[in-house]
Design brief:
The protein is built from 6 helices and no strands. It has 99 residues and is mainly alpha-helical. The radius of gyration is 20 Å and the shape is elongated.
């Protein structure tokens, strides 16, 4: 069931975005402009090391509602909680010495 929801989510988002009026699509763009600037590069999938707000804004307003779908998908991944595992060989050696 979860896999079905994951597969349907992009199609549903695309369908919802295409049904919006131009004013509503502009509101979605304004929300995307409100994200922290560190996300601009990721949302654009840009290879440039830095993306300025003006460049992101221009790029964003050139996107169709279907193009905004990918931005929203990337943003949802960026906003998920993440857990990081740090591994160091020294820790492993220390635990063997204690045993």
């Amino acid at each position: 069931m979860e896999r079905l929801a994951i597969e349907l989510a992009p199609a549903l988002m695309r369908r919802l975005l295409t049904g919006l009026t131009e004013d509503q699509v502009d509101n979605v763009r304004e929300v995307l402009l409100g994200v922290v600037s560190q996300y601009y590069k990721r949302l654009m999938s840009s290879s440039n090391p830095y993306v300025r707000r003006g460049g992101f804004e221009k790029w964003l307003y050139e996107r169709s509602p279907e193009g905004l779908d990918s931005c929203l998908s990337i943003l949802s991944v960026l906003n998920q909680s993440k857990a990081y595992l740090y591994w160091c060989r020294d820790w492993h050696a220390q635990s063997e010495d204690e045993a």
